[in-house]
Amino acid sequence: MKNQTKKVITSLSLILTIVCFTSCNSSGSSNEYKSYLFTYFTGNGPGEEAIRYALSSDGYNYYALNNNEPIIDSKVISTSGGVRDPHILRSEDGKTFYMVVTDLYVTEQGWRNYAMILMKSTDLINWTSTVINIPETYPEEFGDIHRVWAPQTIYDNQTKQYMVYWSMQTGNNPDIIYYAYANEDFTGLKTTPKQLYFSPSNAACIDGDIIFKDGQYHLFFKNEDESKKGIMQAVSDNLTSGYKELEGFMNVTKKPVEGSSVFKLIDSDAYILMYDMYSSGKYQFTKSTDLKSFSVVDDAISMNFHPRHGTVIPITEKEEKALLSKWGKLGENAFVSFNTEHVKKNNVLIDDENLSIFLPLKLDANITSLDPKFELTPGISVSPEGAQDFSSGPISYTFSIGNHSKTYKVSAEKNNNPVLDGFYADPEIIYSHKTKKYYLYPTSDGFTGWSGTYFKTFSSPDLVNWTDEGVILDLEKDVSWANRNAWAPAAIEKKINGEYKYFYYFTAAQKIGVAVSDNPTGPFVDSGQPLIAERPKGIKGGQEIDPDVFTDPVSGKSYLYWGNGYMAGLELNADMVSVKENALVIFNPGSTFREGTEVFYRKGKYYFMWSEDDTRSPNYRVRYATSNSPLGPLNIPKNNIVLEKRPEDGLYGTGHNSVIQTPDTDIWHIVYHRFNRPNGINMGDAAGFNREVCIDKLTFNSDGSIIPVKPTLTGIISIEE
């Protein structure tokens, strides 16, 4: 490792674009400050451990600069090749900026590192940097350290010096927060690190963040105690000693968190505490006036990037203009949002190469008088403004910043796929004879690693227009035996003793449970234990997930199916919450079976559908077999693909379906999920948990074989289609 290696970075020739996020780490408030600069990194992979910038005019809505690419080459300033946890601070005289970062490249080093980097700038654009290798600089005191994490800087009014503080692990001891004073030119440490704070429970203590308020120093940190992990706070009258831990957690969520940062809103008495929900793939923002009680303000937050552990400072209008002048650029990421309620925002297609924009519209849109309500990054203007007639073809819009302009052809069309706003997957659908409505029961998606914990339902009178009926089962509140991985539900309506009952089979923690309600919208009451908790005898791999429930119209008996890596099924007892003993059947759908069994009956045949490949794969698709019985054996047609990707329309990952028959007709529809369009195909594995629910027509040949379904953008506009 290099020791005290000084490097100067002059005129960064990096070109920045503008995106959206929230945070700021200055305790000051001044009329001269007009906006916020956020520094962050994006992940643990190659190229992600690097400093990035974002701007905000209000502290809530942020736009990434440089197309969310690094503003500094990590390989130039670090010894490892990666930097993380950037903390930025304005000097007391307001003219200089200090930034400190962790010198760590997880891909090669894992979670062990030995250095941090001190940086200095007078314009936020050109930075000097120095590597501080702790064991080489302090071999006697800290020769056996294994981690040097998340440095930050604060001005000490007593000593008139800048203090750097960070967490370190020595030997087999827990992580402790240390501090040292920087030299005058911020190129090194002039004092030996001392302990600033350790956890009274002797747990690891990391990610310290100090803010001064009302004569006290408030130290926020992450406690790594196995019994109480989360963001905690300690308070002292002295910057370097005497911290007393407060009771409870500062984070509002129960999800894993780290990297907290507090900043004061400009010209306000309110503070924002933000933290990285690293296992959920999101940040959470909370607000407080006393730094003791915090309320979630996520609904007010927007961002067009996914940051990790960062900080924010307020900046002046002059500083913002300099950043925009240096790095402002017209392009795809200049478009933050389209604020008309009639546009499906997650599905807007921006083609910067061909200078075109496609706006998918909801069915209630008036295409002859549509105002896209472009939300653009700061400094960009658009012409024309107001409502336009898109019915005759694309409209030319010119976007300008400074002396630069681009003209895009903007077209609009009504698309009813996806049918739900937001990210959902694994859709189950039923028709309720009690309410004369259809109900969709999906997985709540958009959570990193499929980490959602609740289920919702949506109702429709016609399969076209859907109403969000809210959460019907929350694992953390309603289920005693599992609190994670709420996946792939199934539901059924059944008349018992003359009354309609609704049975909801769901995956939680790779087990299958059942909950019951008197109404299709719940509330559903869990049975108190998993219905399927173990792998069938003789099955060596796979998971106990993806239930499907089916009532045979011939016999009136009901059956449960499930499995990932294997397809299992058995008969349910009349109570629908227990299974018949010794009734298990393991089906043989062939090597294409992965998961997502769906069973239905039509004209004397039992149809079995399943998904092939991995839900993260663009090639995820649906196949089928038939049978003369609800429990097989299966007859697998030679050409048995039902649904697969359609690259020419940007549709990928089409799978995990259910099927619905319009009552008293031979009209059928298939409900399935796909990757988000247009972004999913470029998201890698994340496409597998950012999915969307679609509906298309399902048709049959005269011999009962299924005609392959063409996934569409338009979807259906009436139940007959």
UniProtKB/TrEMBL annotation:
<protein>
    <submittedName>
        <fullName>Family 43 glycosylhydrolase</fullName>
    </submittedName>
</protein>
<dbReference type="Pfam" id="PF04616">
    <property type="entry name" value="Glyco_hydro_43"/>
</dbReference>
<keyword id="KW-0624">Polysaccharide degradation</keyword>
<dbReference type="InterPro" id="IPR052176">
    <property type="entry name" value="Glycosyl_Hydrlase_43_Enz"/>
</dbReference>
<keyword id="KW-0858">Xylan degradation</keyword>
<keyword id="KW-0119">Carbohydrate metabolism</keyword>
<dbReference type="InterPro" id="IPR023296">
    <property type="entry name" value="Glyco_hydro_beta-prop_sf"/>
</dbReference>
<feature type="signal peptide">
    <location>
        <begin position="1"/>
        <end position="22"/>
    </location>
</feature>
<keyword id="KW-0378">Hydrolase</keyword>
<keyword id="KW-0326">Glycosidase</keyword>
<keyword id="KW-0732">Signal</keyword>
<dbReference type="InterPro" id="IPR006710">
    <property type="entry name" value="Glyco_hydro_43"/>
</dbReference>
<comment type="similarity">
    <text>Belongs to the glycosyl hydrolase 43 family.</text>
</comment>
